[in-house]
Design a protein that fits this description.
single chain, alpha+beta, Aminopeptidase, 5-stranded mixed sheet, 33% helix, Bact_Acetyltransf, GNAT family N-acetyltransferase, acyltransferase, transferase
Length: 162
């Protein structure tokens, strides 16, 4: 990929791809097989309600024969918000990050991150960006550090209700 990807808001037509990528990410990072129907419904709910989630898609413009250009989706991330009473503002959480295998290590996540970072800095009341990373995912941790993020020093606990 010679040029940085173009970043756009996800649309309803992206639902199937985003759901497939969410399932692939869960398997690659946590070896979890997610229920396809549940993931599809979850992505659909997020796409339908920007207050719940916002998705962004990285696009690589590829030239076809005859000088025609087609956009190829290469990666995605989802944003959610968390209110902070300590800071009187919102943290934007980066979640559901996925870069298609053929496009990894080519700046796709960095482009997505910089796009979201610029929007966050331009939005009054946003106090910063956060994300979760698997403890053993050293490559992702290096990527996040290179973009200026720091280990916040928290361990995460959960109780899932099924």
């Amino acid at each position: 990929m010679s040029q940085p990807p173009r970043i756009r808001d996800a649309v309803a037509a992206d639902l199937e791809l985003l759901a497939q990528w969410a399932q692939a990410m869960a398997w690659e990072t946590e070896h979890k097989r997610l229920d396809a129907h549940t993931v599809r419904a979850g992505v659909g709910a997020g796409l339908a309600d920007p207050g719940r989630a916002r998705y962004f898609v990285a696009m690589h413009d590829a030239a076809l024969a005859g000088h025609e250009t087609v956009g190829i989706a290469t990666g995605t991330l989802m944003l959610t918000r968390e209110w902070s009473d300590w800071r009187n503002g919102d943290w934007w959480w980066i979640q559901s990050v996925y870069v298609a295998p053929a496009h990894r290590r080519q700046g796709v996540f960095a482009a997505l991150y910089r796009h979201v970072e610029a929007q966050a800095r331009a939005t009054p009341g946003v106090v910063g960006l956060r994300l979760y990373v698997e403890k053993a995912n050293a490559a992702a941790q290096r990527t996040y550090a290179a973009l200026g993020m720091q280990d916040a020093g928290y361990a995460m606990y959960e109780q899932e209700f099924r």
